[in-house]
Write a structure and sequence with these properties.
five-stranded parallel beta sheet; 24 helices; about 35% helix; about 20% strand; globular; binds beta-D-glucopyranose
Length: about 775
């Protein structure tokens, strides 16, 4: 055989192999080479045009007919619990523009009929409610939805919430809550999207779109209200309602962006916050409400105060008396006052007008956007709820299905030693379910849910039993009870009665029962965390430890030597440092909503794969708070010991962190140009490959750091992310764009927004500790 013919044969063989691969590729048989490109996510835009001329004219023609009292009536919003002839009378006299907390469609229609048919000018009422993470169908709490890193999911969830709420006649929700929160002691951290302004802005826009639809007045949608403007999440010490002090840099670069994003997405209303912002209460803060929101951002909608926040201007030591409070909130830019049984506006603005402290044209300016909103919502033409539709909308099984998917997509896998999860269904004959949260419908739902049918909620225990059927014995022991030292003001809203407190002897017996149960089982699944009233408004804590005797029970169960899975149900990072060292698997399930139990069972037994990521840095203990990933560089940053001598200064889990049942790798990071001019855009691409054996999701995260500038810049800032699904061995190229929007910042030195020439670091990866690095320059 000649050498030539041998070489030819090899060439022929290679060519044949290549052609075979080419033939097989479209069939998906050559998996390792399969590669797709995922372009940057383009968010759907919402119509944010200035108010239509015809709407304005119509509002003005109504204003022209109104008495000062009727105008001030429109500026008043009242809580209403149950039937009230006083409320009917106020509607008849035009003394109120809106009620909140009425959820019965028959009552809504009755009151509306009085306003529309019996009031002098026939102005419809606007019914509002806290539709925070669902109305009848409850989705995971907002912090959980943020952990999905999937704005499309948040949009869909809120559009379902809007459909259900609007079906009963509620046309206004007090959401989204977009307060950036960097202190897990603050109870309301559960209501927002966590610590980051970029993720927070994406979630804010998505929720506004979900609630309002393409434009205000879209059928089956509601008016959104972005809250609490602004700085509430920075309450000192994490103590709810306490004052906050924020530098201009923090305000412009961190705390205000999600509000601006909501305004740009066309949000129709804004709620002013309770607390002092740099010594001026937010509800009396003209700089905030007028200069920033209305003048600078050209906000076209209206501002409502938080509940009783106008009255509270007096308690803050800001207003002299109730009359002064009304005038100061009003002149600061609060259009509508939310009050309990009466408003300060109603009581004191008429006199303020008579005495010339407030002019008629100021009152007209304040009432105009309210009337425009009612017109745009279509309330004049279509004021009533269609009661015949209510049952089918609220009972829609597709809504519950969406809630289950949302709960699966928001769970975060924090640890999975030796691949304990997912649990193999057939491998266990006896499963011990332990913990006070495993079988509580109320705690599966979480705070800020009031209109759900509690019976529809599936607890984790129920979900697991349903999944495993009768072949596996699933036994339950709560082990411990949870309680607050100071009771929650929200207790009255709970639909499930808590059991009577155990005696000391019962406590011991129940604890022992739980440990014995673990001993007798093949695997123990623990549902620990916080009950729902431990998180939310008026639910701040000075500790992040597992409340009650949960830590003790955790240690006792681990000591049995049985495999242990810890499922966390909570709305804030908790101290799980011990667990991170001693427990084999930790799954953060948050408060997962109506279908939470089914979702958790799917995740535990591998019918769903966790893909969520932390929207907040997870501290090792409370002493590290505040701790967030986008801090500035310090002197000798590499020397840990100069920061705390007793403890790492790094978090337990970094922002953006979350595992999967599969593994992923990032490679081939490319920046379109090494250098761009000021104001230009660069493209970044990276390859993500599923290197494991199961299909799963990864969130590609892009972080940027400006190396030098007129002011110090955070060590890293999130500037792009995409959640993608990959089959085993599948590879996708993810693309990001970085433009002026991402590269600008508010410079404390220049005291303005700047984009500065210089070098930028860039990292892409699976969390904020991503290592894959590139640089680019702005000329
Ligand atoms: C909360 C708001 C809420 C309002 C109405 C207040 O206590 O701070 O977030 O929208 O009550 O329920």
């Amino acid at each position: 055989m000649s050498t030539t013919s041998f070489a030819e044969r090899i060439r022929f063989l290679l060519a044949a192999l290549v052609s075979l691969a080419v033939l097989l590729l479209p069939l998906g048989l050559v998996r390792s080479q399969q590669k797709k490109t995922v372009p940057p996510v383009k968010e759907r835009t919402v119509k944010t045009d200035p108010v239509d001329r015809r709407v304005r004219q119509r509002a003005d023609s109504i204003i022209a007919q109104m008495t000062p009292e009727e105008k001030i009536g429109q500026l008043s919003q009242l809580f209403l619990f149950g039937e009230s002839t006083k409320a009917e009378e106020s509607a008849r006299k035009g003394e109120v523009g809106s009620f909140l907390f009425v959820t019965d469609p028959a009552q809504i229609n009755r009151l509306q009929k009085i306003a529309v048919q019996e009031s002098r000018l026939h102005i419809p009422l606007l019914f509002g409610f806290d539709v925070i993470h669902g109305f009848r169908t409850i989705f995971p709490v907002p912090i959980a939805m943020a952990a999905s890193w999937d704005p499309g999911l948040a949009e869909k969830a809120q559009s379902i919430a809007a459909r259900e709420a609007s079906a009963v006649g509620i046309r206004w929700t007090f959401a989204p809550m977009v307060d950036i929160a960097r202190d897990p002691r603050w109870g309301r951290i559960v209501e927002g999207a966590g610590e980051d302004p970029f993720l927070g802005s994406a979630m804010a826009r998505a929720q506004v779109r979900g609630f309002q639809g393409d434009s205000l007045g879209s059928p089956d949608h509601v008016l959104a209200c972005v809250k609490h403007f602004a700085g509430y999440g920075a309450a000192e010490g994490g103590r709810d309602y306490d004052a906050c002090y924020l530098s201009d840099t923090e305000l412009w670069n961190v705390y205000l962006p999600p509000f601006k994003a909501a305004v740009e997405a066309g949000v129709g209303s804004v709620m002013s916050a309770y607390m002092d912002l740099n010594d001026v209460p937010a509800t009396g803060n003209r700089w905030l409400l007028h200069d920033v929101l209305k003048e600078n951002w050209k906000f076209q909608g209206f501002v409502v105060s938080d509940a009783n926040a106008v009255k509270d201007l007096e308690s803050h030591g800001f207003a002299r008396d109730a009359a002064d409070a009304a005038t100061r909130a009003f002149t600061a830019g609060v259009n509508m006052e939310m009050g309990f049984v009466a408003t300060n506006y109603d009581k004191h603005l008429p006199d303020a007008v008579k005495q010339g402290r407030v002019s008629t044209s100021q009152i007209d300016e304040a009432v105009r956007p309210l009337l425009e909103t009612k017109i745009r919502l279509g309330l004049f033409e279509n004021p009533y709820a269609d009661q015949a539709r209510v049952a089918s909308v609220l009972g829609n099984p597709e809504h519950r299905e969406a809630a289950r998917i949302a709960a699966e997509r928001s769970a975060v896998l924090l640890k999975n030693q030796g691949g304990l999860l997912p649990l193999e269904k057939s491998a266990y004959k006896k499963v011990a379910v332990i913990g006070p949260l495993a079988d509580s419908k109320q705690d599966t739902i979480g705070s800020w849910a009031f209109a759900q049918d509690i019976k529809e909620t599936v607890t984790p225990l129920e979900g697991i039993r349903k999944k495993l059927g009768s072949a596996v014995s699933v036994d339950y022991a709560p082990g411990v009870q949870l309680g607050r030292k100071f009771p929650s003001p929200f207790l009255i809203f709970l639909k499930e009665k808590s059991a009577a407190a155990w005696t000391e002897q019962q406590e011991k017996d129940e604890f022992k029962k739980a440990v014995d149960l673990a001993l007798s089982a093949d695997v123990a699944v623990l549902f620990f965390g916080e009950s729902q009233i431990m998180s939310g408004e008026a639910a701040s804590r000075s500790s992040l430890d597992l409340p009650g005797k949960q830590q003790e029970l955790l240690e006792a169960v681990v000591a049995t030597g049985k495999p242990v899975v810890l499922v966390l149900m909570n709305g804030r990072p908790l101290n799980v440092t011990w667990a991170s060292e001693h427990v084999r698997a930790i799954l953060e399930a948050w408060y997962p909503g109506t279908q939470g139990g089914l979702a958790i069972a799917n995740l535990l037994f591998g019918d769903a794969v966790p893909g969520g990521k932390l929207p907040i840095t997870w501290p090792r203990n409370v002493g590290q708070v505040p701790i967030y990933y986008s801090h500035n560089l310090t002197q000798s940053p590499e020397n840990q010991g100069t920061r705390y001598w007793n403890e790492e200064s790094t978090p337990l889990y970094p922002f953006g962190f979350g595992l999967s049942y599969s593994t992923f790798s990032f490679s081939n990071l490319k920046v379109s140009q090494p250098e761009v001019g000021l104001g230009q855009t660069i493209s970044v691409s990276v390859e993500v490959e599923n290197t494991g054996t199961r299909a799963g999701d990864e969130v590609a995260q892009l972080y940027v750091h400006q190396k030098a500038g007129s002011a110090s810049r955070p060590v890293r800032e999130l500037k792009g992310f995409q959640r993608i699904t990959l089959a085993p061995r599948e590879k996708k190229t993810v693309q990001f764009t970085l433009g002026p929007e991402e590269l600008q910042y508010w410079s404390a030195a220049e005291r303005k927004w700047v984009i500065e020439p210089g070098t930028f670091d860039l990292w892409v990866g699976a969390d904020s500790a991503a290592k894959l690095h590139a640089t680019f320059k702005i000329r």
